[in-house]
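Ticket closed. Logging final result for Ribonuclease R.
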Amino acid sequence: MKKPKIVPIPSKQEILDFIRAQPGRVGKRELARAFNLRGSDKIDLKAILKELEREGEVERGQKRRFARPGALPDVGVVEIIGTDSDGELLARPLNYEGEGRPPRIFMAPFRPGEAAVGVGDRVLAKLKRVRGEDVYEARPIRIIGEARARVLGVFEPNPDGSGRLRPTSRKEKAEYIVPRGETGDAKAGELVLADIMPGRLYGMRTVSVKERMGMLGAPRSVSLVAIHTNDIPFEFPEAALKQAAAEGPAPLGDRTDLRSIPLVTIDGEDARDFDDAVFAEPDADPKNPGGWHCIVAIADVSWYVRPGDALDKEAFKRGNSVYFPDRVVPMLPEELSNGWCSLKPDEDRPCMAVHFWLDALGNKLRHRFVRAMMRSVARFTYTQVQAAKDGRPDDKIGPLLPQVIEPLYGAWAALFRERKERGVLELDIPERKVTITPEGKVEAITERERFDSHRLIEDFMIMANVCAAETLEKVHKPCMYRIHDLPSQEKLEGLREFLSSLDLKLAKGQVLRPAHFNRVLEAVADTVNSHLVSQVILRSQAQAQYSPENIGHFGLGLARYAHFTSPIRRYADLLVHRALIAGLHLGEGALPADAVAEFAEWGEHISVTERRAAVAEREAVDRYVTAFLVDRVGASFSGKVSGVTRFGLFVTLDQTGADGLVPISTLPEDFYVHDEVHHCLVGKRTRKTFQLGQTLEVELAEANTLTGSMVFRLGGGSERPPRPPRPGAKPFRPGAKRHKGR
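Final structure:
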């Protein structure tokens, strides 16, 4: 008689590892099946689970199912709080009882027949852990509380006097019904704002038109679409407007008088506000040969916007200004953002200023903050300053060249040396510039030029931000840090696998620094793989955010960093100003003592509003680009593959930076498998490969000005990819999803 095989009882650690590895909660039945336990073995399993529960390693949920402490249930209620930089909906669990911050939740991609959810909705959802221990995917079951009261879309009439509304949002797939009597006299093709009416029809909802906003494609309609689609507040409440209109010049009082210092502002030609000014001179201290004394002066917004007043409440709600090609939605009313808080030339302005002293190598020796009064001597542009430095000064900048411009470049040369020594992630990603005519039409789409004058201001601002964070730590005041985490291990392993296919290596077994990524970028500079590698490294990085808990800024190679330099347009900077005023006893407008209890929640809020603004700005540019190209359907363009998914290729056109999709169904006849590691689609039969960074010739097949989306099809003349995946590389499973946890 054959003896039954004896299966050893798993250890506590093996059981714990198994529970932690599962996407949801685990019951004793699944554990017994996983470890092939039978009969009396289950008694031992029960004892081990009780011991793990007593030790706090696992917690028991409904139906005696186990998970790590703080894990979310398989089904729960979440509230949608915003979007990430890619436009994906983010949510938070309601009634979270775990310790520390709740896990991050991404809403699953919309499926036909599911509820179309939006920011503010409370949703009963199935929850599934998708990465590590802190990222979940939520798939909606039903909406239990709706925040969206309005929808923006294009009205199309029906013969019976009713109509339909096509939403402008790419995420809303379903149209709305506009009943007779609720059309608001809207015309065909008109952009309208409509209230969502109570109740539902099967498959479609009804709306009532409340505001007509002109024809789609009319001047300035593009930014209006982005504003309403992303729920960006754009009308100031009466109380805030009245407060701003009543403001006036700040008194000198106890402020340090900097009006004799030749501070200048340097911004882009299309800048709408001027909130930072700079100055540099050789350090007069003989103990610091070749050193520099610098000043960064920032508009004193905290003088005008006090904690809890009408302006402060609205500024917090907005979180930041939002910039579109044709307009800006400011964080503060125009009387402040373009008036008393704008450092206009030859006008006295209150400021917060930091003096810092550098040695010849760019190392900061010391710094000091003051609350001051300044008077800018000139407003220059980056192009103007760079031309002067290159020997082509105009009449305005020429007289100030030796006294102002040359010392600024001298100090920056020292800062730049220190930057190189410190190691900063040098990813230079091109930025699109949309030029709009006075009539609101797109005149041109170009790549923004980047000069040393841009880098000069950037490095001065970085140093000022470092000084702010260091000072707040020294005076023991709360700091809203700008943090940037290291890339996750999951993303790093994927990046290493990809780089190895190109015979490139990323350091392993040591603490990663930006310099390690820079060495990879340098190895492929000026090669066919340069763009490809840059894109993959960019996608491996974590997303920067605001938090009172400091973990440093990986990309800048800094141990402590806070935003101080733009309080006109970022609420985070205003909080830092108030904390400095409190810690250094600089007068009125200081941070209240009890504010520290709110900092974590405030950091999450302004991180969400920042992502919301980034999505809106990108969507507006996409729509402008689509409008610019709508008359060129059928034309051929050269572009590079900027994204590879299981449903096709995203291609970015070389000349305009326009993005569009080449659907997988239109690729040369074959079955294509998505290889996620190598960022490519591989033909199963032909082995034909389409890879990230590959140059393609495409034709514009569709241009949808309503959503700002374009569809391409392959043309002739597409080059071969830089290098196909190595033989035997494990392909991505068709139908699997890529989840982001940035």
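The longest helix spans residues 599-629. No further action required.
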